[in-house]
Structure formats: C-alpha cells, structure tokens
C-alpha cells in the first residue's frame, strides 16, 4: 500500500514507462479513445495506472478481470498476453469507435454490465479496479467481498478527497436531484482496515494525509493490493 506523491511522480516521470508504452504500441484508432486521451494528457494518471498494470504488460499467462478499465491500448495488449476480461459500461465513446476497438482486439472478452452482475464463479489471478472506487462507485466493500473468494489478488487505486467535495447528480430511474459527498480518508479507512491482514504494508495513517495532491482537483490516490482467497 502506498500513496501517490509528488516525489513519486517526479521519479516516475524520469522514465514514464506507460507513456512510452502508449506512444510505441497504440494503434491509430486508439489515440482518439476517451480513456486513452486522459492517460496521454496526465502524467499523474499514467503514474497511477502504471502502478497496477505495468508488470502485467511485461508478463503473460494470467487470468485477469479488469473492472471499469475503459478502452485503451492497455486492454488490447493485456488480451494478447493474458486471458483478459473487461467489465465496463462503456459510457465514454461512440458505438463506432468501440466496435473498431473490439475488431482490433478479438481476444478481449467484454461484459458490458455492472460488475455486481458478474457471476462469482470461476477464478482469476488478478482483479483490477483502477480509478473507480469510491469516487465513481461507492460500493467498494461489496466489490471486495464479491471478488475476494474467487481471485488471487485485487489491485485497487482508491481516491479520497480530504478537502470538502460533493457532486450534484440526478437519478437515472427517477426525478430526484441528489447531492453526493465524495469520500474522504476517514470514511474509507474503516472499510479497507477490515482487510489489513491481507494488505502488505498496510498503514491506517495514509488515509488522512495532509500532503499536497498531484492532481488538479485535490484528490489523493492510494494504491493497494488485497490478497484473495485463491492466492498461491
């Protein structure tokens, strides 16, 4: 477990291995994909994403479940090296660009659905949720409980706002306007602390960091790996 820091970003940027990988490996149609553009526009996002994917891009033979990973060169290359399944609602790109991506990545299994609808059968070596919890999806505890029994490890990048932040939203199945408070470290800590014995280098203090953020919106990102029940 570690916090993405300014010092860490500076060290990462000396090499920017994910930036080089994307520049060298991207197919032309992938360059216009929303998630790919987000990565190329932000060294901090590449630093975070590299923390959970880079070793898998250099190895082969694993069974991977990538939840909410979006469509980028990373997912295509993972599918060429591993048995990789992407679970994502695919909200960011046009149907045409999505189909073009799939045509170029025939080995990538895709489930366009909520992760909670993925059957808890079979096993995975690695389950990944990058930049999803608890800011986009607040069901982080349910996610961990759902996948721990069927995986070797869960890799997470967890977002907290230790400044006051909220969102005005609208229910998709109703007329209500909802105000959702972004989670701070004090809210996330007791959830993750339950799994402290499964996390190498667990630190309770990391959740309430006062350090400067490396992201323009002031968020802090914690990278953690939780050992699953299928760990070897």
Task: Give descriptors for this structure.
globular, two-stranded antiparallel ribbon, alpha/beta, seven-stranded mixed beta sheet, single chain, 232 residues, 33% helix, 8 helices
The count of β-strands is 9
Give the fraction of residues assigned to helices.
25-40%
Succession of helices and strands: EHHHHEHEHEEHEEEHE
Number of helices: 8
Could you say which overall geometry the principal axes of the C-alpha atoms support? Answer: globular
Q: Mean pLDDT, rounded to whole units?
A: 94
Query: What distance lies between the first and last C-alpha atoms, to the nearest angstrom?
Result: 20 Å
The strand order across the widest sheet is: 1-9-6-5-2-3-4
- Radius of gyration (CA) equals 17 Å
Structural class of the secondary structure composition? alpha/beta
Describe the protein.
With 232 residues, this protein is an alpha/beta fold. 33% of the residues lie in helices and 23% in strands. The protein is built from 8 helices and 9 strands. It has helices spanning 6-13, 17-25, 34-41, 43-57, 73-81, 95-104, 140-147, 185-193, and strands spanning 2-3, 63-67, 83-87, 109-111, 124-133, 151-160, 166-170, 177-181, 220-227. It has a 7-stranded mixed sheet, sandwiched between helices. Strand 7 (166-170) and strand 8 (177-181) form a beta hairpin. The model has no long low-confidence stretch (mean pLDDT 94).
Topology:
Layout: E1 2-3, H1 6-13, H2 17-25, H3 34-41, H4 43-57, E2 63-67, H5 73-81, E3 83-87, H6 95-104, E4 109-111, E5 124-133, H7 140-147, E6 151-160, E7 166-170, E8 177-181, H8 185-193, E9 220-227
């Amino acid at each position: 477990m570690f916090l993405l820091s300014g010092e860490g970003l500076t060290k990462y940027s000396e090499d920017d291995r994910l930036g080089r990988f994307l520049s060298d490996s991207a197919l032309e149609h992938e360059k216009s994909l929303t998630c790919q553009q987000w990565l190329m526009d932000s060294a901090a996002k590449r630093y975070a994403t590299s923390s959970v994917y880079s070793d898998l891009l250099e190895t082969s033979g694993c069974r991977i479940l990538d939840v909410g990973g979006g469509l980028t060169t990373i997912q295509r290359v993972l599918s060429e090296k591993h048995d990789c399944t992407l679970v994502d609602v695919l909200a960011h790109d046009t149907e045409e660009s999505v189909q073009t991506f799939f045509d170029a990545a025939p080995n990538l299994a895709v489930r366009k659905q909520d992760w909670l609808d993925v059957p808890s059968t079979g096993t995975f070596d690695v389950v990944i949720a990058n930049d999803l919890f608890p800011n986009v999806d607040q069901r982080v505890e349910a996610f961990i409980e759902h996948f721990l029994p069927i995986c070797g490890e869960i890799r997470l990048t967890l977002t907290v706002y230790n400044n006051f932040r909220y969102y005005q939203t609208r229910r998709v199945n109703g007329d209500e306007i909802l105000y959702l408070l972004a989670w701070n470290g004090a809210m996330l800590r007791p959830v993750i602390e339950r799994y402290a014995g499964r996390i190498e280098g667990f630190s309770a203090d990391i959740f309430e960091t006062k350090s400067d953020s490396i992201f323009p919106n002031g968020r802090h990102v914690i990278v953690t790996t939780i050992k699953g029940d299928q760990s070897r």
